Amino acid sequence: MRIYMEADYDGMSRRAANLISAEVIRKPDCVLGLATGSTPVGTYKQMVAWHQHGDFSFKEVRSVNLDEYRGLAPTHDQSYRYFMQTNFFDHIDILPENTNVPDGLAADPEAECARYDQLIRSLGYADLQLLGMGRNGHIGFNEPGKNFVKETHVVDLAESTIDANARFFAARDDVPRQAFTMGIGCIMAARRILLLVSGADKADAAYNAFCGPITPECPGSILQLHNDVVLVGDKAALSKLVDAGVKVSE
Ligand code: F6R
To answer: Cα(65)–Cα(47) distance, rounded to whole angstroms?
Structure first.
């Protein structure tokens, strides 16, 4: 595993954008696994700027997002489909039909999970999977629990996740209680994983994921078993890893 420690959020975003852009340039028809949340916003912004500058194209890229709130329409301003459109897809030349996010309004959730897994399989899994991590160690919306769930599933969001995401909604009660999430199996099947962490409130999660035991109580810890993980973080988020003597590149 390679760890890049950047001074701050902007440095993290630039490094991440570089790594994703390199993948798109190397393999124009690559499959990108994408994430939402506040962590990758700067990464998308940087890639949009480079794309608009003419540096590279997303015309052949296919994308699969990690998750979507259950019950939110794609046009809801807190849905992850809406996030992807406004932060990324609307500003690049990716073909709409090549972008994939679980359908938050699916009438039959089990069928939607099966459809999403089949879709990811048919794309041959992600060449590069972008991840953020929750303060509780979640990746995608795979919350801490007794087991790692392999496939796409509907998850009850942890109270701490509802608390953390309430900042995006008018009231805590408006935060959906469930989400569709790609399972750990699909995430781990990606050929390369790029995990971003920013801010002191992620320092414990980063430490637990990479210095602690591999356990579903900290879903991110499964990444210790992947053979091509790149962790990019700012100093605040990586502070506990550095204190523990883990080697980082700057
Ligand atoms: C988002 C996702 C989540 C977030 C995590 C961190 O698609 O899968 O795992 O990456 O909740 O969120 P932020 O970046 O808002 O701290």
So the answer is: 17
Give the tokens for residue 228: 């091509």
User: To which H or E segment does residue 107 belong?
Assistant: none
Q: Two tokens at 197?
A: 């962490």
Ligand 1 atom closest to 35 (CA): 7
Ligand 1 pocket by Cβ (under 6 Å): 35-39, 66-67, 132-134, 138-141
- pLDDT-derived band at 189, boundaries 50, 70, 90: very high
Percent of residues in the chain assigned helix, strand, coil, to nearest 5: 40, 20, 40
Indicate which residues carry an active-site annotation: 67, 136, 138, 143
Asked if residue 129 lies in contact with residue 223, where contact means CB atoms within 8 angstroms, the answer is: no
**How many CB atoms within 10 Å of residue 198?**
27
Atom of ligand 1 nearest to the CA of 132: 10
The gap from C-alpha 214 to its chain's centroid, in whole angstroms, comes to 19
Question: How far, in Å, from the CA of 94 to the mean position of ligand 1?
Answer: 23
Per-residue pLDDT at 100 exceeds 90: yes
Is the pLDDT score of 250 beyond 90? no
Continuous segment of H or E residues that includes residue 36: none
